[in-house]
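Worked problem 6 (solution included).
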Amino acid sequence: MFDIERWQEIFDTIRKNKLRTFLTGLSVASGIFILVILLGFGQGMQNGIAHEFEQDASTSVWVWPGMTSMEYKGMNPGRRIQLRNGNFEYWSQAEGEHIDRQSPRLFVQNVSVTYGNEALVYGIHGVASGFQFIENAKMAQGRFINLSDMEGTAKVVVIGDKIRRDVFGHLDTPIGEYIEFSGLPFKIVGVYKELREREEETLYIPLSTAQKVFNGGDRVSNLAYTLPPAENFDQAVAEAVAFKDELRQYLQQAHTVAPEDTSAIQVWSAMEEAKRYYSLTGNIKFFFWFVGICTIIAGVVGVSNIMLIVVKERTREIGIRKALGAKPWSIVGMILHEAIFVTSLSGFLGLILSMGLLEVVGPHVEVDYIMNPSVNLTVALSTVFVLILAGTIAGFFPAWRAANIRVINALRDE
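Solution. The predicted structure is:
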């Protein structure tokens, strides 16, 4: 039942101790505010990392050749490693059952690109059909490079959506148009989209065409693979690491590279990197929880202190109540009402302000590795209720002390 007189007493007490109550409430509210904001940015980091890894297939493994840094089997350091078609074909046959998608890639250099009288400055990559899925590119129009293009060394090209907008914006579709590569016409057969606009500035042509027409020989710039889905994240990481280590070992043997030479052949696994980033994110979120909880504890201690002051200032009043027959638990309830009121009001105020800030600002936050910081409402509400419980416990001890004050001592208090 709502007791108007009791709540009037609480407001009177708060008014008398308004500065101390304000500072305590501010401490409690700031604790909840800081905790929710930190948890929101922790989730934002997790969202940002997940978004970064969505750009390529999550199980992708990439091989990049470099330069040897040490002597090995009579071979001098400083040799530049050149991957070949034979490396790709051998590994495809040896590990075919462990590979989902695969594609070599050749960066085509020193080729002029024109459309009509307009010169285009975009990168040219020769790839196989599986590269679309490794790069996680979505087709907006037409198709990607296919097996028939590879076998027939077709003069076809797939362009990015940004290129379509910049160069072919005046057309309904660029499909069927021709782009000239050093005077040779290549027919546009598809338009792809990427998560990031800058990833749409590449022209893809069949690898076989790039090697034959532009004097690529059997050279490739790098190798890319995706692995089949695993039952769980840990198993996917273990399979990716095993595949990566075996692939590096094969390439080191094939190119006479010392096993400890890490600069000659670099193999990168998206799953391994994802695990490293997620572990880091987990540690950061734990740190955020620690900081936020410490701030809340400081607020709860403040509630306990102000309740002690309230008890001290109301000692004579408490003595009179007890002399008139007030039960100990009614005294305890009187003090607890104030503790619960301060923590509840401050806690929900901090929650509303922090959730409102995340709701307004969060969707517009898109920096590297931080995207749309937000927090689960259930988690946020749970922290407030835990805070109220902690505030109640913090207020109980001063309340119990008040309930056990001897009447004669209380009446003598000045």
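Discussion: The chain has a mean pLDDT of 81.
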